[in-house]
Write a structure and sequence with these properties.
The structure holds 2 protein chains of 2 kinds. Helix content of chain A is about 90%, strand content about 0%. Chain A has helices at about 5-35, 40-70. In chain A, helix 1 (about 5-35) runs antiparallel to helix 2. The termini of chain A are close together. The model of chain A has no long low-confidence stretch (mean pLDDT about 85). Chain B contains 18 helices and 16 strands. Chain B has 4 domains: about 5-115, Rossmann fold; about 140-300, Rossmann fold (3-Layer(aba) Sandwich); about 310-375, Helicase, Ruva Protein, domain 3 (Orthogonal Bundle); about 390-435, Arc Repressor Mutant, subunit A, CATH 1.10.10. Classes of the chains: A mainly alpha, B alpha/beta.
Chain lengths: ~70, ~450
């Protein structure tokens, strides 16, 4: 793999970590909401954010796969 | 609670992270780029900065330079999702700096924020002299006491400490032990708190199977205090029929464990203590004459606090210093407060003074540095002049019982065996009640 390709993979991994980070943090928030009997609307909002972040992460992995996966 | 600055350009992340940080009990401000972060840092101090490495208008390292410039002491934790940056961060991180790799979990944030180095108050060296490392007071009665401790420490004579409750008999025993510079330890036991069945085992130890429940061999306090000091508190409350056994050990310097046959040589100084007066010891026949002369080779009377009123400000300052140092506070006494403390009678002696200082410390305004004394120094001991023991409707049984125990103990000069007899309960029950009420605790 060339250094340009290396850089590109690193960038895509970084891009995939951002939505994963949001998924992780929103899941932690839901845990706190449930543990503390907080309004469920806040929890649903966090769940929606997780669903969107999953989609975003999937898109990034798709790019990674199409650019480097078949090489 | 920490003041935290979160610097990251991912708004969705900062929203949720800010929620979690607030949940953890901290105050959080958010910046999406370096410019906003600089504005926050110029407007208020922060204890912790959670910082993204890659920001739209520069690197997180630029912010580190800015922190040095403004001499901020904030702890910094880099947050990165870039694998190549992880290595660089590991190299630059130190005690003031750390890093976390995305995706984060609550424990990660909790961990870095709880590791915040607390600025400990500098341990101040006390200006108050502690004689033998533990006794405070410069009055004439205390100087006399120090002289006696010094003299007796050079010998191996048994010492009997006498003085009313709360004068600090155990502290004096510690002082004698320290001044003796013996290689063994100081072992303390309360003869009044042990049942007749257990006192033999506590003092002399027992062999395995000596009685029901003796599942293993046990060392007695005499053996544990080998080459050291044995402090027998409330020795006059020891059951009279157990005293010949103690006398035999004091005379022969050998113990036989309960259920055993072998004589074990022992070598320790015995310091004993009693709340009773000489007269009471003689007239109430609580201690056999032969044992008294063995224990009280060198009797020491510890002065009550009202006999050394000039030491009250010194003691109050020392107790406050201890509390300040334990809790990182800076409370100080005013002259008027020290004078008020000095005028009080302190029937519960140094122990009562210490309790009152502690209570005042708890009640004081945490925002100020002036200690707040209560309007009255109320405790069961400070109401000695109050004779109002009428039972009236509205009082709880517990309060009436507490009052009855108090006046009975007063009547018998603190002799718990006599008080229990007068109250028609066992000594053990009386001790249980006293422990439950706490206020009477020795």
């Amino acid at each position: 793999m060339s250094s340009d390709e290396d850089q590109s993979v690193n960038q895509l991994v970084h891009d995939a970590r951002s939505p994963l980070n949001r998924i992780s943090m929103n899941a932690e928030l839901i845990k706190l909401i449930l543990e503390n009997d907080m309004p469920k609307e806040k929890g649903i909002e966090a769940i929606d954010k997780i669903i969107n972040a999953c989609q975003e992460c999937s898109d990034t992995l798709q790019v990674l796969s199409s650019q480097h996966g078949n090489k | 609670m920490l003041n935290v600055l979160l610097v990251d350009d991912d708004n969705e992340f900062t929203d949720v992270a800010a929620n979690i940080i607030e949940f953890l009990g901290h105050h959080v401000s958010v910046a999406a780029n370096l410019k906003e972060a600089y504005e926050w840092l110029d407007s208020q101090p922060f204890e912790h900065i959670l910082l993204d490495f890659m920001l739209p208008d520069g690197s997180g390292l630029h912010l580190i330079d800015h922190l040095k410039k403004i001499q901020s002491k904030a702890q910094v934790t880099f947050i990165t999702g870039h694998p190549s940056v992880k290595g660089i961060l590991a190299e630059i991180s130190g005690p003031q700096m750390g890093y976390l790799v995305k995706p984060l979990q609550r424990e990660d944030i909790e961990g870095v924020l709880s590791k915040q180095p607390k600025i400990k108050p500098q341990a101040k060296t006390s200006s108050i002299k502690r004689h033998f490392g533990c006794l405070i007071g410069e009055s004439a009665p205390m100087q006399e006491l120090y002289l006696m401790i010094e003299r007796v420490a050079k010998t191996s004579a048994n010492v009997m400490l006498m003085g009313s409750s709360g004068v600090g008999k155990e502290v004096v025993a510690t002082a004698i032990h320290k001044a003796s510079q013996v290689k063994g330890q100081l072992v303390t036991t309360n003869c009044g708190a042990l049942s007749k069945e257990l006192i033999g085992s506590e003092l002399f130890g027992h062999e395995k199977g000596a009685f029901t429940g003796a599942v293993a061999k046990k060392e007695g306090v005499f053996e544990r205090a080998e080459d050291g000091t044995l402090f027998l508190d409330e020795v006059t409350e020891m059951p009279i029929d157990m005293q010949p056994n103690l006398l035999r050990v004091l005379e022969s310097k050998k113990v036989i464990k309960v259920g055993g046959t072998k004589e074990i040589p022992v070598n320790c100084r015995v310091v004993s203590a009693s709340n009773r007066t000489m007269e009471s010891i003689a007239t109430d026949k609580v201690l056999r004459e032969d044992i008294y002369f063995r224990l009280a080779v060198f009797p020491i009377h510890i002065p009550s606090l009202r006999e050394r009123k000039e030491d009250i400000p010194l003691l109050a300052k020392a107790f406050l210093e201890e509390l300040n140092s334990e809790n990182g506070c800076e409370y100080v006494w005013t002259d008027a407060q020290l004078e008020r403390l000095s005028k009080f009678d302190w029937p519960g002696n140094v122990r009562e003074l210490r309790h009152s200082v502690h209570r005042a410390f708890i009640m004081s305004d945490p925002k100020g540095n002036e200690i707040q004394l209560p309007h009255t120094f109320e405790s069961p001991f400070s109401q000695t002049k109050k004779q109002d023991n009428n039972v009236t409707a509205g009082q709880t049984i517990e309060n009436v019982e507490k009052e009855l125990i108090r006046i009975t103990l007063e009547k018998v000069e603190g002799n718990k065996t006599a008080a229990a007899e007068m109250l028609g309960i066992s000594t053990k029950t009386l001790y249980n009640r006293l422990h439950a009420y706490g206020d009477f605790a020795e």
